[in-house]
Amino acid sequence: MVFLQTEKHTRRAFLRRTAQLAFTGAALPTALNLAAMGEAAAFNATDYKALVCVFLYGGSDYANSVVTYDNASYDLYSAIRGGGAGRTAGGVALAQSALSATLLQPTTALPGGRQYALHPAMTGLAGLFNSGAAAVQLNVGPLVVPLTRNDYRGSNRTLYPLPPKLFSHNDQQSVWQSSSPEGSKVGWGGHVGDLALSSNSNSLFTCVSVTGNAVFLSGDSALSYQVSTSGAVKIKSTASNVYNSSAVRDAIGQIAQQSRSHVLENEYNRVTQRAITSESALTAALAPFPATEAPFSSFPANNNLADQLKMVARMIAAQSSLGAKRQVFMVSMGGFDLHDNLVAQQAVLMGRLSEALTAFHDATVQLGVANKVTAFTASDFGRTLASNGDGSDHGWGSHHFLVGGAVKGQAFYGKAPPVSVGNSTSDAEDQWHVGQGRLLPSTSVDQYAATLANWFGVEGGEMAGILPNLKNFSGSQYPANLGFMA
After folding, report:
1. What is the pLDDT of residues 370-383, one digit of tens each?
2. How far apart are CA 296 and CA 293, in angstroms?
3. How many H-runs (helices) and E-runs (strands) does the chain carry?
4. Which element (helix H / strand E) includes 73?
5. How is the chain split into domains, by residue range?
6. pTM of the prediction?
7. Alpha-helix residue ranges (DSSP H) falling in 103-159
8. pLDDT at 104 > cutoff 90
9. Which class does domain 49-229+291-472 fall in?
10. Which of 234, 231, 333 is nearest to 291 (CA)?
């Protein structure tokens, strides 16, 4: 639920409206110049920075990703998830002994002796954490306002509104990416891109997806430029011979790009021309950085997420040729909706995620840009701590990873939730659960995103136009900046 917010009706909204008015033919030079001047003033990047969203589609199981490890908490986890005697594996619980190699060793211990380990398949990411190049944000998820369990269970939705359509895959994917349910047309990554456009000499390469269409990268002005894992996507009929004839190919290319008197035909051809031009520019820029040469040759084989991140790393390597000072990328992997076969399938998924993020970070180190690139994970939602027999069901809050040289690593951020299914009506320690071990987020997506955006260069006055619910979070308990970025 998003209410009218007066602070959003500021320079950004005014500029958007004046630019829209320009299409009517009224005050054309003034409107466009105001928009250009405003965006340039809003974001003046002199260095390079990139944000990389790694979206885990399906709802990542938090309890077997960042696994509670200290004996007291582990025993609760094991009992809820069906573990065996002697802290062995059972049900959907992992054996405690299997977690010793991925035990996380923060520089500051968590309260109450709490300890966490990563899934046993995540040795690479555990190594990044313990070396200071990664951090964990605990229990983050969509919120409109801070909530307690009593607020959630109460009926006052005016004072305590809930995020729209909780536990729905499509809607919660959209809420994570845009603060609105399915059907939203603008995401917070795209809004950040709007501010960065004037910093890039070729604005088309500001927001880049290697995973197809997603609302996260759509801005008011910024476009989501889509590439494949092998590079720019070509228009086949203008890039390859047609009927084995280069003459036919050239003719089609000319027809597809020439100016037309009909406004819709002309716009279609203009977009086609832009696609052809950008494909040529990107292909040329990537040529000195082939995927078969170091540091890209060391990426894991048969790992699509790693292939996507390899393309991101190649584009980062080529950022000077692309004229980019600020870029927002999106990659993803699916398969996380594990109502069944959780133990076996999650081992594969967590292994690929860890391999891909580790290889990507290593590439940024070799390229000398590790402190200028930050990757972060997101997902539809967490899942239930309670097992449904062979898996877990849709949840809410979850734990997420941050990787990069600018991350204040080897640390946990947020509150470690008690290990509980949250069915008690009286236990105060159960306040962060809403039944079956679904976490009630103690940190909002808006806080998470604002911390990343602030590092990227977004100023406080611009945050309201990017993250509509951030105004509801303030003070020491719900800070707008979570502190995980240097």
Report:
1. 999 999 999 999 99
2. 6
3. 15, 12
4. helix 71-81
5. 9-42, 49-229+291-472, 231-286
6. 0.88
7. 123-130, 149-153
8. yes
9. alpha beta
10. 231
